[in-house]
Amino acid sequence: MAGVRVGATGAVTLVLETGGMDAPARGALERDVRAALADMDPGLDLGEIRVAHMAERSGDAPAPKGPRLIAVGSGKGGVGKSTLSANLAVALARKGRRVGLVDADIYGPSQPRLLAAEGMKPKAREKQLIPVDTAFGVSMLSMGQLVEPGKAIAWRGPMAAGALTQLMEADWGDIDDLVIDLPPGTGDVQLTMIQKFKPAGAVIVSTPQDLALIDATRAIAFFEKADVPVLGVVENMAGYVCPHCGEASDPFGTGGAEAEAKRLGYPFLGRIPLAIDIRTASDAGRPPAAGEGAIADSFAGLADRLLEGVR
Ligand SMILES: Nc1ncnc2c1ncn2[C@@H]1O[C@H](COP(=O)(O)OP(=O)(O)OP(=O)(O)O)[C@@H](O)[C@H]1O
């Protein structure tokens, strides 16, 4: 075991070094650890127990320089990965982290709109890009800022990978975390990201329905194979509360991503409801994580759990 952490919420996180183990072996180890804890003195109330799996790191490796890279990926498009990336970055910044955001979704960049930065053009110093400062405490770079609005980016793989490198090697200054909004799936851009920049970990976004979960499992396998630790799974568009009558329904089901994360032995970071307010605020460049209320709290909770798992 690599460590035990007690987070601000009182939850206990056990960190297991499981680099080199496959998913079933990790699942079995986690079950054994949980069973051993359950067998301990029942009077010992440990509250909520979370288990995080980290890839092994060599004991004498130097501490990595630069920001911690957190890749946000999904198996398929349209599950809310960009929305999640923007709001996770804002939520981390609200917790005092110095945060940057790379919109690596080269074929459908949406971060300039989500963070109200559509008119902002990044400057360059000796060919190195300088990220723009958004109004939400997050610095950001997006392919959307480098091409004319509305022009589809029909680049072949190597060009897209080159563009990603430019964004990643920008002058990010002294930041703690660099959140990377990846394109959906497992193509060239994702491969470049993993091979060239070795993210510290990946967050997987899924909606609750079975088909999305199958794709999310594929994305998990992709990161796992590349030795990028999966920091956790987020369930987006989980449960709908009618804004008129208040009735709650589950158009896509609910709990599927949590069950799948548990089955594979990864932490579940939380769920974000399907809410019209999330879409309208996002479209208007007002990230809900920057506001107040239940939805902002859900994003803050994701940031808390992410930080507990990687601190
Ligand atoms: N929890 C939510 N509730 C309501 N609408 C949401 C929610 N999450 C995302 N959306 C909306 O769903 C649409 C798709 O979201 P988003 O662009 O973040 O997905 P994506 O996975 O990044 O898609 P793509 O693969 O196309 O980049 C957007 O209109 C967004 O506002």
TrEMBL record:
Record keywords: ATP-binding, Hydrolase, Iron, Iron-sulfur, Metal-binding, Nucleotide-binding
Active-site residue numbers: E17
Nucleotide-binding is among the record's keywords: yes
A GO biological-process term: iron-sulfur cluster assembly
Recorded GO MF terms: 4 iron, 4 sulfur cluster binding; ATP binding; ATP hydrolysis activity; ATP-dependent FeS chaperone activity; metal ion binding; oxidoreductase activity
A Pfam entry, by short name: ParA
Binding site for ATP: G75, K76, G77, G78, V79, G80, K81, S82
Classification via PROSITE patterns: ALDEHYDE_DEHYDR_GLU (PS00687)
Family: Belongs to the Mrp/NBP35 ATP-binding proteins family.
Protein's job: Binds and transfers iron-sulfur (Fe-S) clusters to target apoproteins. Can hydrolyze ATP.
Subunit structure: Homodimer.
Name this protein carries in UniProt: Iron-sulfur cluster carrier protein
